[in-house]
Design brief:
By secondary structure, this protein is an alpha+beta fold. The chain contains 4 helices and 20 strands. It has a 7-stranded mixed β-barrel. Strand 6 and strand 7 form a beta hairpin.
Length: 314
């Protein structure tokens, strides 16, 4: 049974409910949505004893102000947006208890763009097409509003679990973002491909959950930017006719008609999503098998964390 959990005194800049998205429905034109930083979402859920795909609050840059209406175990992972409980700095990447009457606030961003607040048992919100993720353009999911009360399920979570310092991502120094080349590299000149990998790109303030627009030296095509519309995975890098790359993110359209020069590998997508406007980015190509090995390594880490949390709860 659920009970009132948080009241939103302030909603923040962009606070939404997100899980891992609406999987398997792109063929029907349904946008996936879901967390921009899937790693941080999954860790926040695991630390409070949830399944990895449970819905959590995705908090962008300027966080909300929440009154706690019922005691609960929560975890805040991802960007460090200076979270506090009753004015006292709250831990990151670690589960802890909040009690009725507490107030959760966020302050100055110290690293990253998006934080994830998970609660033991999950939030009692609408499930549309198998997902709790909010996609406002299609009126899917729950829209957070000022003074809104959100409920959660009454589960006794296990608090005090967290990641070691060495396992916490560093969002301040993204370094090179690794990509798999193609599938449309033959649509670009040799000079264009060389420019894409050699230059520094800058995140445009016009970026959002649909796509990160980059300010770059023009990357020329051979014979125009258009291709037959094709599927777009998370992290696809399209280059339209103006020669400026766009990294397609969680709320991307299901298909696209611009040439794709590369795709960000899955484990580096969170590093991209945590870059702020005017953040700087370089790309480095790797082979598909290397990207797969890195993805398997991350999956192993998450499974081990899940097992350790279950052992601690027992």
């Amino acid at each position: 049974m659920s009970q009132p959990l948080f009241k939103f005194r302030k909603t923040g800049l962009q606070t939404t409910i997100q899980d891992l998205g609406r999987q398997g429905l792109q063929q029907y034109g349904v946008v996936v949505s879901g967390a921009m930083d899937p790693f941080a979402l999954q860790v926040s859920n695991l630390l409070v004893g949830n399944g990895r795909d449970e819905g959590a609050l995705e908090i962008a840059l300027m966080g909300p102000e929440l009154d706690v209406l019922s005691s609960a175990v929560i975890a805040i992972c991802g960007a460090d947006l200076s979270p506090a409980v009753n004015g006292v700095r709250a831990p990151m990447w670690r589960s802890f208890e909040v009690r009725e009457g507490d107030r959760i606030t966020f302050g100055r961003p110290l690293s990253g763009m998006r934080a994830y607040l998970a609660v033991a048992g999950g939030f009692d919100v609408s499930v549309d097409m198998g997902s709790k993720s909010t996609y406002e353009r299609a009126n899917l999911g729950t829209v957070i509003e000022k003074n809104m009360v959100i409920s959660g399920f009454n589960v006794n979570g296990f608090h005090g679990l967290g990641l070691s310092h060495t396992d916490i991502p560093d969002y301040n120094d993204p370094g090179y973002i690794r990509v798999v080349e193609g599938p449309d590299t033959d649509h670009f000149t040799e000079k264009g491909i060389e420019s894409f990998y050699s230059q520094q790109h800058i995140i445009s303030p016009e970026s959002d959950r649909m796509g990160y627009r980059l300010k770059s030296a023009e990357i020329p095509h051979k014979n125009g930017a258009d291709i037959w519309s094709d599927a777009i995975p998370f992290g696809t890098i399209q280059i339209p006719a103006n020669g400026q790359p766009i990294i397609l993110m969680a709320d991307r359209q299901t298909t696209g008609g611009y040439a794709r020069i590369a795709t960000v590998i899955s484990i580096d997508v969170p590093r991209v999503s945590q870059l702020p406007p005017d953040g700087k980015i370089y790309f480095h190509p790797i082979k598909v098998d290397e990207a797969q090995k890195l993805a398997v390594k991350e999956e192993q880490f998450l499974r081990i964390l899940e097992m350790n949390v279950k052992d601690a709860a027992d």
